[in-house]
Design a protein that fits this description.
11% strand, Conserved hypothetical protein from pyrococcus furiosus pfu- 392566-001, ParB domain, elongated, alpha/beta, single chain
């Protein structure tokens, strides 16, 4: 199918930047410095795609950042663009949009959500489902439905997910939280630079406390600053560790008491660094394990022989 009618220079003022009908983000993003430098040196190598409106203005289908960069560098110079045919159906335009988007880096999860939400609004699920295959997913309706559920996340979570600040698994866990709780979690994850297991632990512990106490996370955390008990300001890693420790204590107070008691008993033993004592997982039993570290086999042989002698005497 021939999507385009012509290639022509379009004045910046004729482009409707406020029309986000085909934008794959819910917010404005400035062009990266690398893109600005590329356009400054070589111009736009891949012409943006526009759709002509009835009032002789144009809306952007693909290439918003390229146009924004060009407008930033030379606002009075027209931009060479590809204009689609006037009689193209919306489903065909979105297929073109997807092809254009995939010529660059892979779509983020949020971009996928927005793409399918807008496509379904002008067509149907039956039109949308087969396009999942282009994104590496199985063309199944339940997969698309699971993807679209993410649209109910608050804007801060969507932004964080889009920029890889939050993992997809943790974003899905936030779906049942209020927008205020979602925003606060994103703030902690961003400010404390939580990734990986720390991010997962923060999300899991927070959700558990919200469900147990049936109250906003902000209220749950009201006592946290006082609980830190430090007169000196904490750096970011210390603040993060203190928060996770406090949340764990709030979720599992008995386990925390048992752990503190265990550590006190171990400290009283005054063990050398080559000896360590551990307890059963979650204190499910009274079992205690003593671990010994040796520099070589001969050292271990001597100690093991002594242990055997002591055990025989008992």
């Amino acid at each position: 199918m021939n999507f385009f009618s012509q290639l022509q220079p379009v004045p910046i003022q004729a482009i409707q930047f406020e029309d986000s009908s085909y934008s794959l983000t819910l917010w404005e993003e400035s062009p990266e410095e690398e893109l600005l430098e590329s356009i400054r040196r070589f111009g736009i190598l891949n012409p943006p795609v526009l759709r002509r409106r009835q009032n002789m203005s144009f809306c952007i289908i693909a290439g918003r950042k390229r146009i924004t960069a060009a407008a930033t560098l030379e606002p009075v110079v027209p931009v060479l663009c590809r204009i689609i045919r006037d009689n193209l159906e919306e489903a065909a335009i979105f297929s073109l949009l997807l092809e254009e988007a995939l010529t660059g880096k892979p779509l983020t999860t949020v971009e996928k959500v927005i793409f399918f939400e807008k496509l379904i609004a002008v067509s149907s699920m039956d039109v949308a489902v087969p396009l999942l295959e282009k994104l590496g997913d199985k063309p199944q309706k339940h997969i698309l439905n699971d993807l679209l559920k993410l649209r109910s996340l608050s804007l801060p979570v969507l932004k964080a997910l889009h920029h890889d600040v939050i993992r997809l698994k943790n974003a899905r866990k936030m779906l049942d939280l209020s927008p205020a709780d979602q925003k606060l979690l994103v703030q902690f994850i961003t400010d404390l630079q939580f990734g990986g297991s720390k991010q997962q632990k923060l999300v899991d512990l927070s959700i558990e406390l919200i469900k147990r106490k049936n109250m906003p996370l902000k209220d749950i955390l009201a006592d946290f600053p006082a609980a830190c008990g430090s007169e000196q300001p904490l750096n970011i890693p210390q603040h993060g560790a203190a928060l996770l420790s406090w949340l764990h204590e709030q979720c599992y107070p008995r386990l925390t008491l048992a752990e503190n008691d265990f550590q006190r008993k171990v400290a009283r033993l005054g063990l050398p660094s080559t000896m360590q004592i551990s307890h059963a997982a979650a204190f499910e039993s009274e079992e205690i394990t003593l671990s010994l570290r040796f520099s070589d086999w001969s050292s271990m042989d001597r100690v093991v022989a002594g242990i055997k002698t002591l055990m025989q005497e008992e």
